[in-house]
C-alpha cells in the first residue's frame, strides 16, 4: 500500500484534503460473484458522499456521545491489487489514477510478476471525487 500510494499523490491530483479510503475489502471465495464487493464499496462511497453533503452519519459505539462531522471526505479511493478486483472500479465509475506494474514490487528477491505470472499484470489506484 505504501508503495502504491507513493506512485501518485491523489490529494494533489484531485486538489482535495480528505478521502475515504476503502481498504482490505474482501469476499470469501464461496460468496463471490454475488455483488457483495460492489455493494460494500457502494455503501462506503455513499457514507463519504453523505459526510460531504453535511449529513453526520457517524454513530458512537455507546450511542450517547455525539461525534464530530469532520474531517469531511471530498471523495473515495481504493487500491485494487488484481484482475478480479479491478472490475469493481469500472462498476463504481472510479477513475484510474495510475497502474503499477507487478515488476515494481518484490518479495524475497522475486518480483510479483515472476510469482503471479502475466495474468496479474498490475495494481491500480482509483478514486472518485464529489
Describe the structure.
There is one protein chain. This protein is α+β, with helices and mostly antiparallel strands and 130 residues long. It has one domain: Gcn5-related N-acetyltransferase (GNAT) (Aminopeptidase, 3-Layer(aba) Sandwich). The chain is 30% helix and 22% strand. It has helices at 2-7, 10-14, 36-52, 86-91, 112-116, and strands spanning 20-22, 75-80, 95-101, 106-107, 110-111, 122-129. Strands 1-2-6-3 form a 4-stranded mixed beta sheet. The chain has a two-stranded antiparallel ribbon with strand order 4-5. The mean pLDDT is 92.
Largest β sheet strand count, sense and barrel closure: 4 strands, mixed
What structural category arises from helix and sheet content?
Answer: alpha+beta
Q: Which architecture does the CATH hierarchy give at level 2?
A: 3-Layer(aba) Sandwich
Ranges where pLDDT stays below 50 over 5 or more residues in a row are none
The 3D shape can be described as globular
CATH superfamily: Gcn5-related N-acetyltransferase (GNAT)
Q: Approximately how much helix is present in the residues?
A: 25-40%
* Count of DSSP-assigned helices: 5
Strand order of the largest sheet: 1-2-6-3
- Strand content of the residues, in percent? 15-25%
Beginning-to-end CA distance, first to last residue: 24 Å
| CATH class category name | Alpha Beta
Mean pLDDT value: 92
Order of H and E elements: HHEHEHEEEHE
CATH topology: Aminopeptidase
Count up the domains.
1
Extended strand count:
6
The Cα radius of gyration reads 17 Å
